[in-house]
Amino acid sequence: MFDFYFGVIITELLEKLKILGDSAKYDAACTSSGSDRGGTADGIGNAVSCGICHSFAADGRCISLLKVLMTNYCIFDCKYCINRKSNDVERARFEPRELAELVINFYKRNYIEGLFLSSGIIKNPDYTCEQMIEAISLLRFEYKFNGYIHAKAIPGADPLLIERLGFLVDRMSVNIELPSQESLAKLAPDKSKRNILLPMHNIKTGIEQNHTEIVKYKAAPKFVPAGQSTQMIIGATPDSDFQIIRLSEALYKKFSLKRVFYSAYVPVGDEKYLPSKDTKPPLLREHRLYQADWLLRFYGFEAGELLDEKHSSFNPLLDPKCNWAVDHPEFFPVEVNKASYEMLLRVPGIGVNSAKRIMMARRSASLDFKDLKKLGIVLKRAQYFITCKGKRAEGLKVTNSAVMRELMSASVVKKLDESGMTLSSGKMEQLSFFDAEQNISMEDMQKCLTGQL
Ligand code: SF4
């Protein structure tokens, strides 16, 4: 008899997990990196190990966490969301203890390294937040789980609840979802800019105050030690790449976000104001935004340098850094032995690591192309934009066609060759009738993940 009931409970639990894990898959903001909170003598797990051993699925999303919702019941009706109240989907809800036990058991079996917890809104934002706090408190205090936890802040929840949650988790995110107030009003009428930006502001202030406290009292509890992030949905609304990247820039500056995640819109039904159900998710656009995001965070670019009101979409054929270089021939070639670190970073093919290596090596000697190769600098693209000791690379023919071929990914060049087109003038307009690549090449993907643009 006991076995029978136990079997029923397990089946129910697995069914809930199936529904709530599936409902959570649309949230891209789940990276596990960035926490420096070590293990404790009586605890289980360690957030640091998550930071260094997270892995990514083929589409670039992190897969080391159990990514799940407390519930997919929701009183809100965001049109782009599969869990909206008006959508007819199977619903489920975890009790806080059920979820805590599931996580700790998965962790002990080595299935996961941490938890990403979000939720639909049940009853009201405060109640939902309390449920999340209860589940995570059980994990932290009863089960002594010391691994990585990323929790979503529920828009509209009381600031004191957000603060309590912040002391239990490593990272928090408040999803901005849509890039403009107009889109928010149309597609997420229950949400407001204020109830999204206020928790972001409070988390930022809390992190700053906590840093001061930790300097004074080493044992002070840590508040959101891995910082906060957000997510924007791409392609659900007419908002342009320029609007999106400019908003990301403002969020990084104003709220010190660790990351903005971009999630290509996956149609969830035929809703007024939304792309039709058979529209493919704009993956290349998402990819270009990730590349531009790297440029904002690590390469010293500003959104206004990459796009403007007149040119408000990223070039599907070139990554944003190459596109900038092609549009600004007046800055090139750059003399490797004299250029500032900031200017080296603007050379296509020279990433953060390469620029640092050059700066270090040229302190002791003037560098030539052979030296650059020895330093591990990949010259395939860079050679067209640099000189060493005033000279171009030996035998290099700088024609528009040669440069463009090196800057485009292999799959675009292949299509170009197949179509019989030439790039004699090198003008991007000539390519406008050429199909933008639909798939992202491995080369592009790798550069996007490592940031070596
Ligand atoms: S509040 Fe969240 S879960 Fe609810 S409908 Fe909106 S996006 Fe979906």
**CA-based shape:** globular
In terms of per-residue confidence, which ranges show pLDDT below 50 for 5 or more consecutive residues?
A: 48-53, 55-61, 424-438
- Run of helices and strands: HHEHEHEHEHHEHEHHHEHHHHEHHH
Terminal CA distance = 62 Å
- Report helical residue fraction: 40-55%
The named CATH superfamily of the largest domain: Aldolase class I
What is the CATH architecture descriptor of the largest domain? Alpha-Beta Barrel
- Taken as a percent bin, the fraction of beta residues is 5-15%
How many individual helices?
18
Give the rounded overall mean pLDDT.
85
The total number of structural domains is 2
Largest sheet: spatial strand order: 1-2-3-4-5-6
Largest sheet: 6 strands, parallel
Could you name the CATH class of the largest domain?
Alpha Beta
User: Which structural class fits the helix and strand makeup?
Assistant: alpha/beta
In short:
With 453 residues, the protein is an alpha/beta fold. It has two domains: 2-306, TIM Barrel, CATH 3.20.20.70; 320-450, no CATH class. The chain has 18 helices and eight strands.
Write the layout of secondary structure elements.
Blueprint: H1 2-23, H2 47-53, E1 65-69, H3 96-108, E2 114-118, H4 125-142, E3 148-152, H5 159-166, E4 171-173, H6 181-187, H7 193-216, E5 228-234, H8 241-255, E6 259-264, H9 283-298, H10 303-306, H11 320-327, E7 334-335, H12 341-344, H13 352-361, H14 369-374, H15 379-382, E8 386-387, H16 400-407, H17 410-419, H18 442-450
Parallel strand pairs: 1-2, 2-3, 3-4, 4-5, 5-6, 7-8
Helix pairs in contact: 3-4, 4-5, 5-7, 8-9
The structure holds iron/sulfur cluster.
Iron/sulfur cluster binds at residues 74, 76, 78, 81, 83-84, 120-121.
